[in-house]
Amino acid sequence: MTLLQTRPPLPSDDKRWKLVNATMRRNGYAGHALIETLHSVQDAFGFLDETAMRFVAGSLDLSLSKVYGVATFYHLFLLKPKGRHACVVCTGTACYIKGARGLVEAIQERYAVRPGETTPDGRLSLLTARCVGSCGLAPAVVLDGAMQGNQTAGQVLAKLERLD
Ligand code: FES
Q1: Which of 14, 123, 129, 130 is 20 to 30 A from 52, comparing alpha carbons?
Q2: Cβ(138) to ligand 1 under 6 A?
Q3: Which residue has a Cα nearest atom 1 of ligand 1?
Q4: Looking at the domain assignment, is residue 4 inside a domain?
């Protein structure tokens, strides 16, 4: 008898979950795909949060503690940033060509934070991702989970200024 594992649904209709799911599917949802999958989460979202880790654990049939253990053991994985707001600038090829570097530099200059860092007042974390799944909207920024396409440095800085 074949036991069919039930996999959790994608956490939302955010296209980035499809990128993560594709990595797991390519590996037959096998447990050995864990590290590659966590890389895929970080490439798409810029960091790993509990939602992502629960989704990966459920999909690969691993315990949440195992996924947390691996995510926290390897320094190259970034856990959810501590800032009240998270600004993820996509620096994948399509976005890079359309000026993503200028966006990162503008934010760095204004807030004195580098990618992966949070401002000392805890207001803003800056992150980069390798592709947020919206190349047609390059350069793309994900601000507090909301996709913002065709961004200029001026537009991004204006949005960041308005945050509490
Ligand atoms: S490279 Fe930026 S959305 Fe794909």
Answers
A1: 123
A2: yes
A3: 92
A4: no
